[in-house]
Amino acid sequence: MVKKNACVFISGQGSNLKNLINRSRDNNFPIKIRLIISDKKNAHGIIYAKKNAIPYKVINTNLKYYETLILQILKKNKISFICLAGYMKIISSNFIKKFGKKIINIHPSLLPKFKGLNTFSRILKNKEKKTGCTVHFVTDKLDSGKIITQKSFFISLNDSELTIQKKTQRLEHQAFPESIIKIFRNN
Ligand code: GRF
């Protein structure tokens, strides 16, 4: 299979990145991670780029033209697919238009519920019975593009923000690779 050249954008821990790197070792997995972009130089996830000898770039998002810079780097590396895995910057509509290829994001709630930040505290405060994660296409509206995969679990009385986060991440590590397989299955 001819794999798509993918870039993963991160800002933090990078557990989804780590998982995607592992999955992409499989010959039948549709993408090869050619590049990692982080907006923070001390993002823990960069360790997985180093460990796996995957090129990475830290792009300072205080720069006025940082998106133009990213677009140039993506072009140079022939990237045709982007996974946002905990990337904390909002991608502009201009970027989406100029990149012109698929961009997907993972979000720790059952969208359209709980878009944006601090999802776990809001989920608890709202006394939700169920929660989970969503993988969706990125559009210029925050956490609003077409849903590719959702996975859910029931919240128990003992759950805290931390346990909900852990359970959600476990599901994310299934949902992200499954979504990528789904997207490219018929291509
Ligand atoms: C995930 O929970 C994801 O849903 C959210 O940011 C978190 C990133 O976690 N967008 P990690 O950096 O992949 O561990």
Distinctive features:
24% strand, globular, 7 strands, Rossmann fold, seven-stranded mixed β-sheet, binds 5-O-phosphono-beta-D-ribofuranosylamine, alpha/beta
What does this structure look like?
This protein has 187 residues and is an alpha/beta fold. The chain has a single domain, classed as 3-Layer(aba) Sandwich (Rossmann fold). The chain is 34% helix and 24% strand. The chain is built from 6 helices and 7 strands; from the N terminus they run βαβαβαβαβαββα. It has a 7-stranded mixed sheet. Strand 1, helix 1 and strand 2 form a beta-alpha-beta unit. Helix 1 packs parallel to helix 6. The N and C termini lie close together (11 Å). The model has no long low-confidence stretch (mean pLDDT 96). It binds 5-O-phosphono-beta-D-ribofuranosylamine. 5-O-phosphono-beta-D-ribofuranosylamine binds next to helix 1, strand 5 and helix 6.
What is the strand and helix layout of this fold?
Elements: E1 4-10, H1 15-23, E2 31-38, H2 46-51, E3 56-58, H3 66-76, E4 81-84, H4 93-99, E5 102-107, H5 119-125, E6 130-137, E7 147-154, H6 161-184
Helix pairs in contact: 1-6
The structure holds 5-O-phosphono-beta-D-ribofuranosylamine.
